[in-house]
């Protein structure tokens, strides 16, 4: 589970270059992936939303890849300069087929940005088409927190859980990007 957020930092934004770089990398593999984690909430959020750091986790890109698409995705990532990164999970016995790829990209200000793509090979992920992307079904995505995702304190995750509890579809809802009121 994610650590509690420092409420004094609410309102901080992701650098636009991080979002643009992430989108460019996702676009290259779009037909072969199902988007999960913070990027899934990003696509479920209203168009042109503010990229609050505490709303969506954009530190990495979490994906699911069908087994038949793994070779294609890995090939595209390698062509784009990504390298396989070994993690502690690679040595542990697990039912999950997990892979991590990373590269560094310089943004328009020559600032180095690390792009990390984490993907799980799996064939039975419920998804829906949202804004032209295959996105993990919101209710299923919530169930992944505590197992493969850890940023369950993000605004979007918390808001989506409340909406789903009320039988409201969270897709496109402004609550996914609203800073929560701080209780005193």
Give the helix/strand class: alpha+beta
Count of discrete domains: 1
Q: What integer value in Å does the Rg equal?
A: 16 Å
CATH superfamily: JHP933, nucleotidyltransferase-like core domain
What is the helix tally?
5
Beta-strand share of residues: 15-25%
- Write the element-wise H/E pattern from the N-terminal end onward: HEHEHEEEEEHH
In the CATH classification, which architecture applies? Roll
According to CATH, the fold-level topology is Nuclear Transport Factor 2, Chain: A
* Low-pLDDT sequence parts: none
Description:
The protein has helices at residues 16-29, 37-44, 70-79, 138-143, 155-165; strands spanning 34-36, 61-65, 83-84, 97-106, 112-121, 127-130, 133-136. The protein has 184 residues and is an alpha+beta fold. It is globular. The longest helix has 14 residues, at 16-29. Helix content is 27%, strand content 21%. The chain has one domain (11-177): JHP933, nucleotidyltransferase-like core domain (Nuclear Transport Factor 2, Chain: A, Roll), CATH 3.10.450. A hairpin with a 5-residue loop joins strand 4 (97-106) and strand 5 (112-121). It has a five-stranded mixed β-sheet with strand order 1-2-5-4-3. It is built from five helices and seven strands.
SSE topology sketch:
Blueprint: H1 16-29, E1 34-36, H2 37-44, E2 61-65, H3 70-79, E3 83-84, E4 97-106, E5 112-121, E6 127-130, E7 133-136, H4 138-143, H5 155-165
Keyword list:
184 residues, alpha+beta, Nuclear Transport Factor 2, Chain: A, five-stranded mixed β-sheet, two-stranded antiparallel ribbon, 7 strands, 27% helix, globular
